Amino acid sequence: MIITQKYFLHFPVCETNTPIIYKLVKDYDLEVNIFRALVSSEGEGYLVLDVKGEAGSIKKAMEYIESFGVTINSVKNGVVRDESLCNHCGNCISHCKTGALHIADLKTRKIVFDDKLCIACGKCVDNCPMKACSTVF
Ligand code: SF4
Ligand code: SF4
C-alpha cells in the first residue's frame, strides 16, 4: 500500500553531512518532498519532509535513519504553540490556511492547534502578537 507520511527530523551535529535523503530515494524507492531545512549555527540539522512510498519501505527507511541517531517525529514539524503564552485573540486563524489553528468550541472560542494539519508555513509565527507560536526554522 502506497502512503504519504510527514516527518520532522533532527540530525545531531555529526550526521549533517550524511547523504540520507539520497539513500531514501535510491535504496528505499521513496519520493521525498522537503518543505523546510536548516543547519543551526551549532551544526545540528532540522528537516520537514513528506515521504511517499510503500508503507513497509518507509518503515525500513525510518529505521535506517534512526540508526544514525536522528530523532524522528511523525506528527510535529518544528512548529509549536506555547499554550501558556496564548491569549486566544484568534489573529493566527486568518493566517492559517490549513485549519491547523482553529476554534474547536464556539462557546469557549479557545484556539486549538492540530499539528497533524500544520504544513510549517510559519505564518502563525510571524503574526502572533504574544509570540506563542514558534519554530526551529
Ligand atoms: S495569534 Fe497567538 S495569541 Fe492569538 S490566538 Fe493565535 S497563538 Fe494565541
Ligand atoms: S505554521 Fe502555518 S499551517 Fe502551521 S499552524 Fe502556523 S499558520 Fe497554520
Describe the protein in words.
The chain is of the alpha+beta class and 137 residues long. The protein has two domains: 2-73, Alpha-Beta Plaits; 79-126, Alpha-Beta Plaits (2-Layer Sandwich). The protein has three helices and eight strands, in the order E-H-E-E-H-E-E-E-E-H-E. It has helices at residues 20-28, 55-66, 123-127; strands at 2-11, 31-39, 45-54, 71-73, 79-81, 101-103, 111-113, 133-135. The strands form three sheets. It has a four-stranded antiparallel β-sheet with strand order 2-3-1-4. Strand 2 and strand 3 form a beta hairpin. The longest helix is centred in the middle third of the chain and has 12 residues, at 55-66. The relative contact order is 0.20. It binds iron/sulfur cluster (2 copies).
Summary, kept brief:
With 137 residues, this protein is α+β, with helices and mostly antiparallel strands. The chain folds into two domains: 2-73, Alpha-Beta Plaits; 79-126, Alpha-Beta Plaits, CATH 3.30.70.20. Strand 6 (101-103) and strand 7 form a beta hairpin.
